[in-house]
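Anyone opening a protein record will find just a pair of labelled lines. With that in mind, the following record should read easily:
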Amino acid sequence: MPFRRAVLVGAAFLSVFGPVLLAGASPDSATAAPDPVPQGGSAGSATQFAAWPPALSAPAWVPRTFTVVGSGDVLLHSGLWHDDFRALLKDVAPVVSAADLAICHLETPVGRPGGPFSGYPIFLVPPRIAPALKSTGYDACSTASNHSIDGGAAGVDRTLDALDAAGIRHTGTARSAAEAARPAIYEIDGVRVGHVSFTFGLNGLREPGDKPWLANELDVAALLRQAHEARAAGAEFVVASIHWGTEYAHDPNTQQRQVARQVLRSPDVDLVLGHHAHVVQPFERIGSKWVAYGLGNHVSGQGFSADTRDGVLARFTVTEVAPGRFEITLAEALPTWMLLGAGPARVLDAARCAASHRDPAALRRDCRASWRRTADQVRRGGADIVVER
């Protein structure tokens, strides 16, 4: 966000490089250095001079702030493979690209550029999704999911290579033990943000015995260890992306609630973004921290029910409340609607679509209904959420 960055930099510049008044000088005389002033000696005695230059005062503390946007599952079913992925995401690009840090959840591994591709239950999807996510404004993706190793180690390698080529950071799966051990830290307007990603399971598949680091399977101790390592490496705020929950259930299950509380009790995790349920689940404030239990589907061909076409962009404003200590000061939900059927699929900003006079009346009604469902779901956690209209 260039304007805010300019304000913060400007404030720091003035505090350090603004007019410096010399000892005993008035503001009007600050531009000219006075001659050294003798201090009480007699003729022939050693002359003492005032200290020059005076010590500079420490710059005033200027709180830093940034926004994080997290979205739901990017789940590319076969019906979407021939679509233009950039056009698919175009309607939500303004919100995503405006965030200081935008994090997607790439649930499925990618195949070779020319295929073959496969859908449920073993996914290998077109790798051109990666540059499309980048052009939408995503900075990073979590990659630990129950489908992480559908393509084996080669699928993990291809997926991370595709994200690297697109300029998207990632965490949750790894191509080597060294990569798995390296904390994911993103620098956002001078703030270092750590990111960890874990999944509840791998659909019964197992990592090769010599590659146990391919995908992070959910274990609270392991998650907190990675978060602590990110803190030790300089992270000032840490986001945990967790693939969990019961599919198509709007209520968080016992594991979700227990893990959220265990994780957010730690000083090393500040925000939890949840995935996997394929429907929107509540946001909840736990202490001064937040969990979005389930962000629904961001991209999906699951058109068998209305709520599997609902998604939500979770936007959190993070503010430095004391030097080096950050808290979420605003939580927002921006509902999305997956348009499927006649014509190309699209991820729509539900509020914009509902209010548009250029879209067909039936589509406006669908977007309005989707907005209401999502607004109701995110607020069921009792949290004071701002839902975009």
Remarks:
- The longest helix spans residues 361-379.
- Residues 1-50 have pLDDT under 50 and may be disordered.
- The CA atoms of residues 15 and 59 lie 5 Å apart.
- The radius of gyration is 26 Å.
